[in-house]
Amino acid sequence: MRREFRPAALLLILGVAASCAKEQSPADPAAGVEPHAPASAPAPTGAPDPASPTDAAQGPDTAQGPDAAEAPDAAEAPKEVPDPFVEGLLADLRPKWSAVVDDPARFRFQFIVTELRPGPRDEEGQAQLEFIEHRYREDAEYVYPASAIKTFASVAALRELDALRATHGKRLALDTPLALCRGKSTRCVKTKDESNLDGGLITLGHEIRKMQLVSNNTAFNRLMQFVGFDRFHEHMRAMGFDHTFVRHPLWVVGDDEEPLLAPRVEMRPAKGKRVVVEARESRAELPPTELPRMEVGQAYLDEAQGKARVDAPMDFGPKNFVSLRDFHRLTLGIVLAGDPRVPDLGLGKRELAFLRKAMTEDPLASKNPVYEDEHKSALRYKTMLEGVMRVRSPARIEYVNKAGRAFGFHLENAYIRDRKSGRAFVVTVVLYVNDNGVLNDDLYQYDAVSRPMLDDMGEALARRVFDEASP
Q1: Which of 38, 60, 353, 408 has the highest count of CB atoms within 10 angstroms of its CB?
Q2: What residues contact residue 432 under an 8 Å CB cut-off, 6+ apart?
Q3: Could you say which residues of the chain have pLDDT below 50?
């Protein structure tokens, strides 16, 4: 059966990290409470498996010149059968980006691309969707997931809401007011959100929109507090994302919460008792991230010591991790729900449509929340859009994504489709750009290297996927 690709809102660009301050207000008047105990799920297991079956072989691991200061002993990945698509794409990036293409290990350059093409018609006359996958240096070394990890939190929160609704009924919804306590307190005081024009209260739906539209860090932390860190990993394993680990919240100015404590949360529907999820402290022992080059850079500024310089690489073992494969499969699961070849996220059509809209919409076109700062336009957050627009007009492009950048790592995880031809591709790509080798000094080459290169890569992909054999 042919999968219908429905146009989403305007194309626009979602990007990295906008941190919001936490709002507080006096606790609401006492009301009846209805306790809720989260259902159990399989415990987290496993460390990243760097390879998995694909439809096309991985491209050559070209000229892996080591970054002497960072990884003098980095092992070269085994050679595989060359993929002409990968070789052609790398050639498209030369000579402008030869410094990266000829030394991918230094830049931790990795990607997976899946072409999605309308194929032969079935007995009902519907075109079948062909998947053609290409991968290059997939999980050859560690990469920090940055804000791209946030979509996993959206999916986990939507799944947790469904679990609550199964127990407490449909009176719980995305727009149900949410209250969060501080620490282990039973007095929930965080209820207000002035950016929510529909009532001025915290809701799951509004937090998801803020996070997917402008990469709000506070929203991510609130979603993790709602779900709980252990419960989050239960949801990931249930969907088959075995190599996705949130080991810490995302940084917010003035945040003094206990990192892995999910406080007491109350959902306060208009009718009926409050639904209470008691405070939960993470007790799961997550497996270590077992990839090469877990230490990054030559030095770093230590936030815990007032940004004192430490002349040693930063150890990313305690930090968040998502395999490139999990990122890629997540996007496929969102945009091709129901196809047996993609993960089942366990969400209904309404929830998927809500999430997909937040991942597509231009922040400046949003009615709630409202963003008036021109720097929050779509082009900021959709990393490859400008390049794709060199090939297709904006009206023809559907762009669904969540990008991220931090510590010099720059990721894009996107579904990009030509509405007219139906041809599309999913691309998951990462670069590490940090010339001086110092982390936390904010002197990264996002604007000089990663952003323009990813735009050029978007253009090259659009030409190869959209233009080849175009009608």
Answers
A1: 408
A2: 107, 108, 109, 143, 296, 408, 409, 410
A3: 1-69, 71-74, 470-471
